[in-house]
Design goal:
The protein has about 525 residues and is α+β, with helices and mostly antiparallel strands. It contains 22 helices and 7 strands.
Length: about 525
Protein backbone atom coordinates (compact mmCIF):
# COMPACT_ATOMS: atom_id res chain seq x y z
CA UNK A 1 0.00 0.00 0.00
CA UNK A 2 1.43 3.39 -0.98
CA UNK A 3 2.22 5.85 1.76
CA UNK A 4 0.40 8.56 -0.24
CA UNK A 5 -3.02 6.92 0.12
CA UNK A 6 -3.85 9.27 3.00
CA UNK A 7 -3.41 12.99 3.32
CA UNK A 8 -1.49 14.33 6.28
CA UNK A 9 -4.78 15.19 8.01
CA UNK A 10 -6.18 11.74 7.37
CA UNK A 11 -2.98 10.14 8.62
CA UNK A 12 -3.19 12.18 11.78
CA UNK A 13 -6.77 11.01 12.35
CA UNK A 14 -5.91 7.35 11.73
CA UNK A 15 -2.47 6.95 13.30
CA UNK A 16 -3.57 6.13 16.83
CA UNK A 17 -5.85 3.31 15.67
CA UNK A 18 -3.38 1.25 13.59
CA UNK A 19 0.17 -0.02 14.00
CA UNK A 20 1.05 1.36 10.57
CA UNK A 21 -0.63 3.23 7.69
CA UNK A 22 1.47 2.08 4.75
CA UNK A 23 1.85 -1.70 4.93
CA UNK A 24 -0.65 -4.45 4.03
CA UNK A 25 -0.42 -6.17 7.41
CA UNK A 26 -1.35 -4.09 10.44
CA UNK A 27 -3.00 -4.40 13.83
CA UNK A 28 -5.84 -2.38 15.34
CA UNK A 29 -5.45 -0.53 18.62
CA UNK A 30 -7.28 1.99 20.81
CA UNK A 31 -10.68 0.97 19.43
CA UNK A 32 -13.66 -0.19 21.52
CA UNK A 33 -14.86 -3.71 20.82
CA UNK A 34 -18.21 -2.59 19.41
CA UNK A 35 -16.37 -0.42 16.86
CA UNK A 36 -14.06 -3.26 15.84
CA UNK A 37 -16.99 -5.61 15.31
CA UNK A 38 -18.94 -3.12 13.25
CA UNK A 39 -15.82 -2.14 11.31
CA UNK A 40 -15.08 -5.71 10.26
CA UNK A 41 -18.73 -6.29 9.49
CA UNK A 42 -18.73 -3.41 7.00
CA UNK A 43 -15.25 -4.39 5.72
CA UNK A 44 -16.53 -7.74 4.45
CA UNK A 45 -18.99 -5.99 2.11
CA UNK A 46 -16.83 -3.30 0.51
CA UNK A 47 -13.86 -2.88 -1.80
CA UNK A 48 -12.38 -0.21 0.45
CA UNK A 49 -9.38 -0.83 2.66
CA UNK A 50 -10.11 -1.26 6.36
CA UNK A 51 -8.41 2.02 7.22
CA UNK A 52 -10.45 3.84 4.60
CA UNK A 53 -13.69 2.33 5.99
CA UNK A 54 -12.81 3.53 9.48
CA UNK A 55 -11.99 7.01 8.23
CA UNK A 56 -14.97 7.57 5.96
CA UNK A 57 -17.77 5.60 7.59
CA UNK A 58 -16.92 5.92 11.28
CA UNK A 59 -14.53 8.79 12.08
CA UNK A 60 -16.13 11.18 9.60
CA UNK A 61 -19.69 9.98 10.17
CA UNK A 62 -21.44 12.39 12.58
CA UNK A 63 -24.00 9.83 13.76
CA UNK A 64 -21.44 7.21 14.76
CA UNK A 65 -20.56 8.65 18.15
CA UNK A 66 -16.99 7.74 17.30
CA UNK A 67 -15.29 10.71 18.91
CA UNK A 68 -17.10 10.19 22.20
CA UNK A 69 -16.20 6.51 22.21
CA UNK A 70 -12.52 6.96 21.47
CA UNK A 71 -11.83 10.35 23.07
CA UNK A 72 -10.61 11.15 26.55
CA UNK A 73 -13.96 11.04 28.32
CA UNK A 74 -14.23 9.79 31.87
CA UNK A 75 -15.24 6.19 32.50
CA UNK A 76 -18.84 7.10 33.25
CA UNK A 77 -19.02 9.29 30.14
CA UNK A 78 -17.54 6.46 28.13
CA UNK A 79 -20.34 4.10 29.18
CA UNK A 80 -22.91 6.72 28.18
CA UNK A 81 -21.17 7.09 24.83
CA UNK A 82 -21.32 3.35 24.24
CA UNK A 83 -25.04 3.33 24.85
CA UNK A 84 -25.67 6.36 22.61
CA UNK A 85 -23.62 4.89 19.79
CA UNK A 86 -25.21 1.46 20.07
CA UNK A 87 -28.06 2.21 17.66
CA UNK A 88 -25.62 3.32 14.97
CA UNK A 89 -23.37 0.25 15.29
CA UNK A 90 -26.27 -2.14 15.48
CA UNK A 91 -27.55 -0.70 12.20
CA UNK A 92 -24.16 -1.44 10.63
CA UNK A 93 -24.17 -4.98 11.97
CA UNK A 94 -27.71 -5.67 10.80
CA UNK A 95 -27.02 -4.27 7.37
CA UNK A 96 -23.66 -5.85 6.67
CA UNK A 97 -22.94 -8.58 9.12
CA UNK A 98 -23.96 -12.06 10.14
CA UNK A 99 -23.38 -14.14 13.26
CA UNK A 100 -19.74 -14.79 12.40
CA UNK A 101 -18.94 -11.07 12.70
CA UNK A 102 -19.43 -11.43 16.46
CA UNK A 103 -16.26 -13.56 16.50
CA UNK A 104 -14.24 -10.45 15.60
CA UNK A 105 -15.18 -8.50 18.73
CA UNK A 106 -14.11 -9.74 22.13
CA UNK A 107 -13.99 -8.82 25.77
CA UNK A 108 -12.11 -9.64 28.96
CA UNK A 109 -14.25 -10.48 31.98
CA UNK A 110 -13.24 -11.24 35.56
CA UNK A 111 -15.50 -13.48 37.62
CA UNK A 112 -14.59 -13.43 41.28
CA UNK A 113 -15.80 -15.36 44.30
CA UNK A 114 -17.57 -17.99 42.29
CA UNK A 115 -17.60 -21.63 43.32
CA UNK A 116 -15.22 -24.12 41.76
CA UNK A 117 -18.33 -25.98 40.61
CA UNK A 118 -19.69 -22.94 38.75
CA UNK A 119 -16.23 -22.17 37.38
CA UNK A 120 -16.26 -25.55 35.62
CA UNK A 121 -19.55 -24.58 33.97
CA UNK A 122 -18.09 -21.26 32.80
CA UNK A 123 -14.98 -23.00 31.45
CA UNK A 124 -16.86 -25.74 29.63
CA UNK A 125 -17.05 -23.81 26.35
CA UNK A 126 -14.64 -25.32 23.87
CA UNK A 127 -14.42 -22.65 21.18
CA UNK A 128 -14.25 -18.89 21.51
CA UNK A 129 -13.65 -18.62 25.28
CA UNK A 130 -10.19 -18.68 26.90
CA UNK A 131 -10.33 -19.10 30.69
CA UNK A 132 -7.66 -18.73 33.36
CA UNK A 133 -8.47 -19.79 36.93
CA UNK A 134 -6.92 -19.26 40.35
CA UNK A 135 -4.46 -22.07 40.99
CA UNK A 136 -4.73 -24.53 43.87
CA UNK A 137 -0.98 -25.16 43.46
CA UNK A 138 0.24 -21.61 44.03
CA UNK A 139 -2.49 -20.01 46.15
CA UNK A 140 -3.65 -20.91 49.65
CA UNK A 141 -7.40 -21.26 49.79
CA UNK A 142 -7.84 -20.84 53.55
CA UNK A 143 -7.43 -17.06 53.69
CA UNK A 144 -10.67 -15.73 55.20
CA UNK A 145 -12.91 -13.17 53.49
CA UNK A 146 -13.69 -9.69 54.82
CA UNK A 147 -16.24 -11.20 57.20
CA UNK A 148 -13.62 -13.53 58.70
CA UNK A 149 -15.24 -16.67 57.26
CA UNK A 150 -13.76 -19.27 54.96
CA UNK A 151 -14.45 -18.61 51.30
CA UNK A 152 -17.00 -21.09 50.02
CA UNK A 153 -20.34 -20.67 48.27
CA UNK A 154 -23.26 -19.95 50.61
CA UNK A 155 -26.36 -19.61 48.44
CA UNK A 156 -29.86 -19.71 49.97
CA UNK A 157 -30.48 -22.99 48.14
CA UNK A 158 -27.83 -24.54 50.42
CA UNK A 159 -29.46 -23.54 53.71
CA UNK A 160 -29.17 -27.14 54.89
CA UNK A 161 -28.21 -27.48 58.54
CA UNK A 162 -25.15 -29.62 57.75
CA UNK A 163 -23.67 -27.76 54.79
CA UNK A 164 -21.81 -24.80 56.32
CA UNK A 165 -20.38 -26.74 59.29
CA UNK A 166 -19.16 -29.46 56.91
CA UNK A 167 -17.50 -26.96 54.56
CA UNK A 168 -15.96 -25.15 57.54
CA UNK A 169 -14.57 -28.47 58.79
CA UNK A 170 -12.90 -29.19 55.43
CA UNK A 171 -11.30 -25.74 55.32
CA UNK A 172 -10.23 -26.07 58.96
CA UNK A 173 -8.47 -29.37 58.18
CA UNK A 174 -6.78 -27.77 55.16
CA UNK A 175 -5.71 -24.75 57.20
CA UNK A 176 -4.40 -26.83 60.11
CA UNK A 177 -2.26 -28.96 57.84
CA UNK A 178 -0.72 -26.37 55.49
CA UNK A 179 2.12 -25.27 57.77
CA UNK A 180 3.01 -28.71 59.23
CA UNK A 181 2.97 -30.30 55.77
CA UNK A 182 5.07 -27.48 54.31
CA UNK A 183 7.64 -27.77 57.12
CA UNK A 184 7.78 -31.55 56.79
CA UNK A 185 8.37 -31.24 53.04
CA UNK A 186 11.13 -28.68 53.59
CA UNK A 187 12.86 -31.04 55.98
CA UNK A 188 12.58 -33.85 53.45
CA UNK A 189 13.75 -31.68 50.54
CA UNK A 190 16.35 -29.24 51.93
CA UNK A 191 17.62 -26.39 49.81
CA UNK A 192 20.22 -27.48 47.25
CA UNK A 193 23.53 -25.89 46.46
CA UNK A 194 22.97 -23.05 44.01
CA UNK A 195 19.19 -23.04 44.54
CA UNK A 196 17.71 -19.69 45.53
CA UNK A 197 15.61 -19.33 48.63
CA UNK A 198 12.75 -18.08 46.44
CA UNK A 199 12.80 -21.13 44.17
CA UNK A 200 13.06 -23.59 47.09
CA UNK A 201 10.22 -22.01 49.05
CA UNK A 202 8.00 -21.81 45.98
CA UNK A 203 8.60 -25.45 45.05
CA UNK A 204 8.04 -26.79 48.57
CA UNK A 205 4.94 -24.68 49.14
CA UNK A 206 3.51 -25.87 45.82
CA UNK A 207 4.13 -29.48 46.87
CA UNK A 208 2.27 -28.93 50.16
CA UNK A 209 -0.70 -27.29 48.46
CA UNK A 210 -0.80 -30.06 45.84
CA UNK A 211 -1.02 -32.66 48.61
CA UNK A 212 -3.80 -30.83 50.42
CA UNK A 213 -5.99 -29.57 47.57
CA UNK A 214 -8.13 -32.69 47.80
CA UNK A 215 -9.67 -31.30 50.99
CA UNK A 216 -11.18 -28.32 49.22
CA UNK A 217 -14.90 -28.73 48.51
CA UNK A 218 -16.39 -28.01 45.09
CA UNK A 219 -18.06 -25.04 46.76
CA UNK A 220 -14.66 -23.40 47.41
CA UNK A 221 -14.63 -19.91 45.94
CA UNK A 222 -12.23 -19.19 43.12
CA UNK A 223 -11.47 -16.34 40.71
CA UNK A 224 -11.20 -16.62 36.98
CA UNK A 225 -10.61 -14.48 33.95
CA UNK A 226 -12.36 -15.07 30.65
CA UNK A 227 -11.46 -13.73 27.24
CA UNK A 228 -13.91 -14.48 24.48
CA UNK A 229 -15.52 -13.30 21.31
CA UNK A 230 -19.05 -11.97 21.20
CA UNK A 231 -20.57 -15.04 19.62
CA UNK A 232 -19.09 -17.36 22.25
CA UNK A 233 -20.16 -15.11 25.11
CA UNK A 234 -23.70 -14.94 23.75
CA UNK A 235 -24.00 -18.74 23.78
CA UNK A 236 -22.28 -19.03 27.17
CA UNK A 237 -24.81 -16.66 28.73
CA UNK A 238 -27.75 -18.57 27.22
CA UNK A 239 -26.32 -21.90 28.36
CA UNK A 240 -25.67 -20.65 31.90
CA UNK A 241 -29.25 -19.33 32.05
CA UNK A 242 -30.44 -22.92 31.50
CA UNK A 243 -28.17 -24.44 34.15
CA UNK A 244 -29.58 -26.55 36.98
CA UNK A 245 -27.59 -24.60 39.61
CA UNK A 246 -29.07 -21.25 40.74
CA UNK A 247 -25.54 -19.87 41.09
CA UNK A 248 -24.93 -20.44 37.38
CA UNK A 249 -28.23 -18.86 36.41
CA UNK A 250 -27.28 -15.78 38.43
CA UNK A 251 -23.90 -15.70 36.68
CA UNK A 252 -25.73 -15.64 33.34
CA UNK A 253 -27.50 -12.43 34.37
CA UNK A 254 -24.30 -10.92 35.81
CA UNK A 255 -22.27 -11.67 32.68
CA UNK A 256 -25.00 -10.32 30.44
CA UNK A 257 -25.20 -7.06 32.39
CA UNK A 258 -21.46 -6.42 32.28
CA UNK A 259 -20.85 -7.49 28.69
CA UNK A 260 -23.74 -5.31 27.54
CA UNK A 261 -21.58 -2.37 28.62
CA UNK A 262 -18.65 -3.28 26.35
CA UNK A 263 -19.95 -5.48 23.48
CA UNK A 264 -23.70 -4.77 23.66
CA UNK A 265 -24.57 -5.59 20.07
CA UNK A 266 -23.09 -9.07 20.39
CA UNK A 267 -24.83 -10.25 23.55
CA UNK A 268 -28.16 -8.56 22.92
CA UNK A 269 -29.89 -11.83 21.96
CA UNK A 270 -28.39 -13.93 24.75
CA UNK A 271 -31.37 -13.50 27.07
CA UNK A 272 -33.97 -11.85 24.84
CA UNK A 273 -37.50 -13.17 24.48
CA UNK A 274 -37.13 -14.12 20.82
CA UNK A 275 -33.95 -16.20 20.88
CA UNK A 276 -32.10 -16.43 24.19
CA UNK A 277 -34.84 -17.22 26.69
CA UNK A 278 -36.57 -19.82 24.47
CA UNK A 279 -33.20 -21.48 23.81
CA UNK A 280 -32.40 -21.60 27.54
CA UNK A 281 -35.85 -22.98 28.33
CA UNK A 282 -35.42 -25.68 25.72
CA UNK A 283 -32.02 -26.70 27.17
CA UNK A 284 -33.52 -27.01 30.64
CA UNK A 285 -36.47 -29.07 29.39
CA UNK A 286 -34.21 -31.33 27.34
CA UNK A 287 -32.00 -31.95 30.39
CA UNK A 288 -35.06 -32.88 32.47
CA UNK A 289 -36.34 -35.31 29.79
CA UNK A 290 -32.93 -37.01 29.46
CA UNK A 291 -32.51 -37.23 33.24
CA UNK A 292 -35.80 -39.13 33.41
CA UNK A 293 -34.47 -41.65 30.90
CA UNK A 294 -30.98 -42.05 32.38
CA UNK A 295 -30.06 -44.93 34.65
CA UNK A 296 -29.43 -43.84 38.26
CA UNK A 297 -28.34 -45.96 41.16
CA UNK A 298 -25.13 -47.71 42.11
CA UNK A 299 -22.27 -46.11 40.11
CA UNK A 300 -20.16 -49.24 40.50
CA UNK A 301 -17.41 -50.30 42.88
CA UNK A 302 -14.84 -47.82 44.18
CA UNK A 303 -11.96 -49.61 42.51
CA UNK A 304 -9.60 -46.65 42.21
CA UNK A 305 -8.51 -44.46 39.30
CA UNK A 306 -8.86 -46.01 35.86
CA UNK A 307 -8.62 -45.19 32.17
CA UNK A 308 -10.55 -47.42 29.80
CA UNK A 309 -10.40 -47.22 26.01
CA UNK A 310 -14.07 -47.61 25.12
CA UNK A 311 -13.83 -47.18 21.35
CA UNK A 312 -11.22 -46.91 18.62
CA UNK A 313 -11.08 -47.30 14.86
CA UNK A 314 -9.17 -50.42 13.72
CA UNK A 315 -8.70 -48.73 10.33
CA UNK A 316 -7.20 -45.54 11.81
CA UNK A 317 -3.67 -46.07 10.53
CA UNK A 318 -4.80 -46.35 6.92
CA UNK A 319 -6.96 -43.23 7.29
CA UNK A 320 -4.09 -41.22 8.76
CA UNK A 321 -1.78 -42.26 5.93
CA UNK A 322 -4.42 -41.42 3.29
CA UNK A 323 -5.04 -38.01 4.83
CA UNK A 324 -1.31 -37.28 4.91
CA UNK A 325 -0.89 -38.14 1.23
CA UNK A 326 -4.08 -36.50 -0.04
CA UNK A 327 -3.02 -32.82 -0.35
CA UNK A 328 0.08 -33.83 -2.34
CA UNK A 329 -1.77 -36.18 -4.69
CA UNK A 330 -4.28 -35.84 -7.52
CA UNK A 331 -6.23 -38.96 -6.48
CA UNK A 332 -9.33 -39.08 -4.28
CA UNK A 333 -9.11 -39.82 -0.58
CA UNK A 334 -10.23 -43.43 -0.85
CA UNK A 335 -7.64 -44.10 -3.57
CA UNK A 336 -4.64 -43.06 -1.51
CA UNK A 337 -2.11 -45.80 -0.83
CA UNK A 338 1.38 -46.03 0.54
CA UNK A 339 3.60 -47.91 2.90
CA UNK A 340 2.40 -46.85 6.41
CA UNK A 341 5.85 -47.15 7.97
CA UNK A 342 7.41 -44.98 5.28
CA UNK A 343 4.65 -42.36 5.31
CA UNK A 344 4.53 -42.05 9.10
CA UNK A 345 8.30 -41.73 9.30
CA UNK A 346 8.27 -38.95 6.70
CA UNK A 347 5.39 -37.26 8.53
CA UNK A 348 6.59 -37.51 12.11
CA UNK A 349 10.08 -38.96 12.24
CA UNK A 350 11.97 -35.71 12.80
CA UNK A 351 9.90 -34.20 15.64
CA UNK A 352 12.44 -32.58 17.95
CA UNK A 353 10.20 -31.44 20.81
CA UNK A 354 6.55 -31.46 21.89
CA UNK A 355 5.97 -27.95 20.52
CA UNK A 356 6.43 -29.29 17.01
CA UNK A 357 2.75 -30.18 16.76
CA UNK A 358 1.57 -33.33 15.09
CA UNK A 359 -0.01 -32.66 11.66
CA UNK A 360 -3.72 -32.57 10.89
CA UNK A 361 -3.70 -36.03 9.31
CA UNK A 362 -3.64 -37.53 12.83
CA UNK A 363 -7.14 -36.18 13.42
CA UNK A 364 -8.42 -39.14 11.37
CA UNK A 365 -7.66 -41.48 14.30
CA UNK A 366 -10.40 -41.18 16.94
CA UNK A 367 -10.55 -42.62 20.47
CA UNK A 368 -13.11 -42.61 23.28
CA UNK A 369 -11.85 -42.98 26.84
CA UNK A 370 -13.84 -43.47 30.03
CA UNK A 371 -11.89 -42.13 32.99
CA UNK A 372 -12.28 -42.40 36.73
CA UNK A 373 -10.03 -40.05 38.66
CA UNK A 374 -10.33 -37.47 41.41
CA UNK A 375 -12.07 -34.18 40.72
CA UNK A 376 -8.79 -32.28 41.12
CA UNK A 377 -7.36 -34.19 38.15
CA UNK A 378 -10.55 -33.61 36.17
CA UNK A 379 -10.30 -29.89 36.98
CA UNK A 380 -6.84 -29.78 35.38
CA UNK A 381 -7.63 -31.92 32.34
CA UNK A 382 -10.93 -30.13 31.72
CA UNK A 383 -8.82 -27.27 30.29
CA UNK A 384 -8.25 -29.31 27.13
CA UNK A 385 -11.08 -28.09 24.97
CA UNK A 386 -10.21 -29.49 21.53
CA UNK A 387 -12.03 -32.72 22.28
CA UNK A 388 -15.49 -33.86 23.29
CA UNK A 389 -15.94 -34.44 27.01
CA UNK A 390 -18.61 -34.67 29.66
CA UNK A 391 -18.74 -35.79 33.28
CA UNK A 392 -21.20 -37.30 35.68
CA UNK A 393 -22.35 -35.46 38.80
CA UNK A 394 -19.84 -35.20 41.62
CA UNK A 395 -20.43 -37.70 44.37
CA UNK A 396 -18.63 -39.86 46.90
CA UNK A 397 -19.57 -43.41 45.87
CA UNK A 398 -16.43 -43.91 43.76
CA UNK A 399 -14.19 -43.26 46.75
CA UNK A 400 -11.32 -40.82 47.15
CA UNK A 401 -7.60 -40.69 46.48
CA UNK A 402 -5.24 -40.39 49.43
CA UNK A 403 -2.03 -38.67 48.29
CA UNK A 404 0.89 -41.07 48.95
CA UNK A 405 3.02 -38.13 50.06
CA UNK A 406 0.77 -37.52 53.06
CA UNK A 407 1.16 -41.09 54.24
CA UNK A 408 4.93 -40.73 53.93
CA UNK A 409 4.69 -37.66 56.18
CA UNK A 410 2.46 -39.43 58.70
CA UNK A 411 -0.50 -37.10 58.07
CA UNK A 412 -2.88 -39.29 56.08
CA UNK A 413 -5.29 -40.04 58.94
CA UNK A 414 -6.34 -36.41 59.48
CA UNK A 415 -6.90 -36.01 55.73
CA UNK A 416 -8.98 -39.20 55.49
CA UNK A 417 -11.15 -38.37 58.51
CA UNK A 418 -12.08 -34.99 57.03
CA UNK A 419 -13.07 -36.61 53.72
CA UNK A 420 -15.13 -39.33 55.38
CA UNK A 421 -17.04 -36.73 57.41
CA UNK A 422 -17.78 -34.78 54.20
CA UNK A 423 -19.04 -37.98 52.54
CA UNK A 424 -21.59 -38.41 55.32
CA UNK A 425 -22.86 -34.86 54.85
CA UNK A 426 -23.00 -35.36 51.09
CA UNK A 427 -25.33 -38.32 51.55
CA UNK A 428 -27.72 -36.22 53.64
CA UNK A 429 -27.57 -33.27 51.22
CA UNK A 430 -28.21 -35.57 48.26
CA UNK A 431 -31.30 -36.93 50.02
CA UNK A 432 -32.64 -33.56 51.17
CA UNK A 433 -31.55 -31.10 48.45
CA UNK A 434 -30.90 -33.33 45.45
CA UNK A 435 -27.72 -34.60 43.75
CA UNK A 436 -26.94 -31.37 41.86
CA UNK A 437 -26.76 -29.16 44.97
CA UNK A 438 -25.05 -31.89 46.99
CA UNK A 439 -22.03 -31.51 44.70
CA UNK A 440 -20.95 -28.35 46.53
CA UNK A 441 -19.71 -30.28 49.58
CA UNK A 442 -17.78 -32.93 47.62
CA UNK A 443 -14.01 -32.46 48.14
CA UNK A 444 -11.64 -32.51 45.18
CA UNK A 445 -10.10 -35.80 46.36
CA UNK A 446 -13.26 -37.77 45.54
CA UNK A 447 -13.36 -39.51 42.20
CA UNK A 448 -15.65 -38.67 39.31
CA UNK A 449 -16.32 -40.53 36.06
CA UNK A 450 -16.10 -38.76 32.72
CA UNK A 451 -15.34 -39.43 29.08
CA UNK A 452 -13.00 -37.95 26.51
CA UNK A 453 -13.49 -38.40 22.77
CA UNK A 454 -10.32 -37.16 21.15
CA UNK A 455 -8.37 -37.50 17.93
CA UNK A 456 -4.76 -38.62 17.93
CA UNK A 457 -3.45 -35.14 17.25
CA UNK A 458 -5.02 -33.84 20.46
CA UNK A 459 -3.92 -36.98 22.33
CA UNK A 460 -0.31 -36.23 21.34
CA UNK A 461 -0.70 -32.71 22.73
CA UNK A 462 -2.48 -33.72 25.93
CA UNK A 463 -0.27 -36.67 26.80
CA UNK A 464 3.03 -34.96 25.99
CA UNK A 465 2.04 -31.87 27.99
CA UNK A 466 0.40 -33.58 30.95
CA UNK A 467 3.09 -36.21 31.56
CA UNK A 468 5.95 -33.76 32.07
CA UNK A 469 7.74 -34.57 35.36
CA UNK A 470 6.67 -31.28 37.00
CA UNK A 471 2.97 -32.08 36.51
CA UNK A 472 0.62 -33.09 39.31
CA UNK A 473 0.85 -36.87 39.88
CA UNK A 474 -2.94 -37.31 39.61
CA UNK A 475 -3.32 -35.99 36.08
CA UNK A 476 0.04 -37.45 35.02
CA UNK A 477 -1.38 -40.89 35.80
CA UNK A 478 -4.45 -40.28 33.63
CA UNK A 479 -2.40 -38.98 30.69
CA UNK A 480 0.06 -41.88 30.96
CA UNK A 481 -2.72 -44.46 31.00
CA UNK A 482 -4.46 -42.83 28.03
CA UNK A 483 -1.23 -43.14 26.06
CA UNK A 484 -0.69 -46.76 27.12
CA UNK A 485 -4.17 -47.68 25.89
CA UNK A 486 -3.34 -46.21 22.46
CA UNK A 487 0.01 -48.02 22.35
CA UNK A 488 -1.86 -51.29 22.84
CA UNK A 489 -4.11 -50.83 19.79
CA UNK A 490 -2.01 -48.58 17.51
CA UNK A 491 1.67 -49.02 18.41
CA UNK A 492 2.97 -47.52 15.17
CA UNK A 493 0.80 -44.39 15.47
CA UNK A 494 1.81 -43.97 19.11
CA UNK A 495 5.53 -44.42 18.43
CA UNK A 496 6.07 -40.82 17.36
CA UNK A 497 4.66 -39.27 20.53
CA UNK A 498 8.24 -39.34 21.77
CA UNK A 499 7.76 -36.70 24.43
CA UNK A 500 5.24 -38.63 26.51
CA UNK A 501 7.02 -39.27 29.82
CA UNK A 502 6.01 -42.62 31.31
CA UNK A 503 8.43 -42.29 34.23
CA UNK A 504 7.60 -41.72 37.87
CA UNK A 505 8.00 -37.94 37.77
CA UNK A 506 9.85 -35.63 40.11
CA UNK A 507 9.32 -36.03 43.85
CA UNK A 508 9.40 -32.26 44.29
CA UNK A 509 7.55 -31.47 41.09
CA UNK A 510 8.16 -27.72 40.86
CA UNK A 511 11.86 -27.67 41.80
CA UNK A 512 13.31 -27.69 38.27
CA UNK A 513 10.64 -25.32 36.97
CA UNK A 514 11.34 -22.78 39.71
CA UNK A 515 15.06 -23.02 39.00
CA UNK A 516 14.35 -22.32 35.32
CA UNK A 517 12.34 -19.26 36.36
CA UNK A 518 15.38 -18.02 38.30
CA UNK A 519 17.59 -18.55 35.23
CA UNK A 520 15.17 -16.50 33.10
CA UNK A 521 14.98 -13.73 35.71
CA UNK A 522 18.77 -13.60 35.90
CA UNK A 523 19.00 -13.39 32.12
CA UNK A 524 16.52 -10.49 32.12
CA UNK A 525 18.54 -8.72 34.83
CA UNK A 526 21.69 -9.09 32.74
CA UNK A 527 19.96 -7.59 29.70
CA UNK A 528 18.75 -4.62 31.73
CA UNK A 529 22.26 -3.97 32.96
Amino acid sequence: MAATEFTSAESAALARFFTNLDRPVFALRNLPEVVKGALFSRYSRTEKSLRRVLLEEFINEPDSGFEALTGSASDSDDMVAVRKAEEFYERVLVGYGDDSVAELAGAHVAVERTSTLAAKALEDSRIGISPLEKSTRYVRFDRPGPDGRYLFYRGPELAHADYEPAADALFAAYSEMVEPVTEAIRKRFPIETGETDRAWKSATRAKALDLLRGLLPAGALTNLGLFGNGRAFEYLITKMAAHELPECRQLASDLHRELALVIPAFVKRALDERYGRPAADRMAKTRARIMDLARRGDPGPAAGPSVKLVEHDPDAERKVVAAALFPHSDASLDEQGGDPAEVLEALLGDRANRRQRAPRALEHAQYTFEIVANFGAYRDLHRHRMLTQDRQLLGTALGFDLPPGLADLGMADRFARALEAAAGVHARLERDAGPALAQYIVPLAFRVRWYFRANLREVYHLCELRTTPQGHPDYRLVAQEMFRRIEEVHPRLARYARFVDLGSGDELERRKSEQKIDDKLNALDQRVR
